[in-house]
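Could you please consider the sequence and fold appended to this message?
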Amino acid sequence: MGTLAERNRTELMESLADNLKALPDEQLEAIKDFAGLARRMAHLVPAPPGTYGNLIGPVYSTKALQAMWDISREAVSKKARSGKLLALKVDGENLFPVFQFRGNEVRADVRDIVKVLRESADPFTVAQWLRTPQDDDAQKRTPLSQLDEGCFEVVKSSATRAAARWSA
């Protein structure tokens, strides 16, 4: 049967093969740097959770976002500094929680909630809050689950209250 990693590798390769079969021949014929393309694709695999991982979940590295958006390291850093990305600094490297993305786009709803919390808490606290079931929610959903269900105003209100508590 193999390890989970071996099974995942096989499933990933099969899925990739299926997706490549669906591409037009011209697109595949235009590929010049197979190794570079493979390297960029491999960078898109989220890193496993680290110390905070069980709560925060998988993360993308800066290299993953460079590959995803075809931008420089500096451009990724600029997006993080400007508040367009939630970045967690670990051992001198920025890591980006996968939960803030929908496909290759940053979720506007998550970005807006992060903005509310950012002034009162460090990025790890913000990330944990987004993934923690809320006591004031009857169903004990996480703010991310609530956002997924379209409850932006409810989450924004809860974030505003949390920020006020953290600032007190």
Q: What stands out?
A: Residues 45-167 form one domain. The chain has ten helices and five strands. The longest strand covers residues 93-97.
